[in-house]
Amino acid sequence: MVDTPDKNRESAGQAGPGAVMSAPELRGWFAREVLPLEAILIQFLRRNWRNKSEIEDLLQEVYVRVYEAARKELPQSAKPFVFRIARNLLINRFRQQQVVAIEAVADLDTLEVSADEPAPDRAAIAHEEFRRLQAAIDRLPPRCREAITLGRIEGLNGREIAQRMGISEAAVSKHLARGMSILSDLLHREPGEGEVS
Amino acid sequence: MTEPEAAKGVKDQAADWLQRREFWNWSAQDQSDLDTWLAQSPAHEIAFVRMEAAWRRTERLGALRKPMRLAQPLSRSRRWPILMRTAAASIAVVVIGAAGFLYVSRPSEKTFATPIGGRETLKLADGSVIQLNTDTLITLRINERERHVELKRGEAYFEVHHNATLPFEVVAQGHRITDLGTKFLVRADRGELEVSLVAGKARIDTADKNDQAHSAVLSPGDVAVATAGSLSVVRKSQSTLQTELSWQRGVLIFDNVTLAEAVGELGRYNHRKFVIADPAIARRTIYGAVPATDVDAFIRVARNVMGLKVQQKDGEIVFSQ
Fold first, then answer.
1. Residues B237 and B254 in one domain
2. ipTM of this predicted complex?
3. Within an 8 Å CB–CB cutoff, is residue B285 touching chain A?
4. Which one of A69, A162, B132, B204 has the minimum C-beta count within 10 Å?
5. A187 and B57 in contact by Cβ < 8 A?
6. Which of B41, B46, B52 to mutate to test the interface with A (most CBs of A within 10 A)?
7. Which domain, by its residues, includes A157?
8. pTM of the full predicted structure?
9. Does residue A68 sit within a domain?
10. Tens digit of pLDDT for each residue in A158-172?
């Protein structure tokens, strides 16, 4: 398997706030600091945006804005930075639509208060992570689950998966891509919130 | 402002790129095509980073390997049976695996060894099964008169087909384990012998036969630790024992062990040397599963889960804060 982002992650750790980062550093920062916020970010968007079919696009837009802004200057702390951008985006959209979700105002005001929670116990996180991974795999559609399991757990490559499942390589690609995509939603969001798109 | 691409479509494309890279032949041209796609828009780049981050987290899923996989036959291409018959006794030993060595030392005796990172399953004609873990050396003397095994180095798991008239005995570091119908694990490590009883019953007699206290009958869950001068028995839960047997599936499961213990275990399966540069992190605990012979997977866990710095130089892997 190709292995590049780890090196990036390490070097990104050395760039301090305010530093201008290279593309790999920026990616590393994004994966480490921003993606873990996705669960609460999507909750926030859902609470404050009526049209649920637009949530995914809103999320993408928040991410792009965060990315572009961080490219210019790395923020001190990712969470208030991300939510400030999300809030501004929503406010712009509210203005365009001339409707405002009632909860939005309260939400927007309380956001920064909870920016720094105490770090939970690492072992507990690891337990939770493991449980969550298992649950995520269990929730994949059967053929996706089979392809992903053969690939990730048994270590087979695409061709071998096709042989084992008795299906075409193109079909394996589809199952794998779909499985990866669903897993990305399940893992970046709270358990029980994976039924998106 | 141009209309942004729908998020769903971008996500699907990112997933497709990632599965192509991870599971199929990946050429320099493919990489360059991916780079082009990534450069087209930040949305592409973000979607890919996001997909990749989730995929990396699934690395720990190795632990989900079901024990039933043990019962499945190995795929035909990997199957490598050797059938040997001793002229006198026609007792056969079948070796399954790719990296086994067989020496014939004495006519009545057979020696099997695994290299570091290797694993072997020996199936004896009497129905008993012996699984050898990494860096293990074992000698079998099995015929109509005796079933005698010597564990000279390493670790082995025994599933013994009981035969009251022909006891099965394992000798290691001078201590003797006698099966009374049983499954057990024997590990010889730095002058200490550990016998974990998974099922059935077994007796252990330590090297010092004169002392009555140096003998014990083990029940399931019992773990006997014998050194040159002492024998102690502690109890472990079945789930703990199963965790310790995860090497049979090529996986090491760490259940809240310290980093020092984890790299110690990993060192048994790999040639590379692990160094913990900072004493403070040696005591940090770790939970999860890694493939026993995939050092890089462990390094990623150390970096991404534990947040450690990992440097590789001169064949050494150095962990620091």
1. no
2. 0.72
3. yes
4. A69
5. yes
6. B46
7. 122-188
8. 0.45
9. yes
10. 999 999 999 999 999
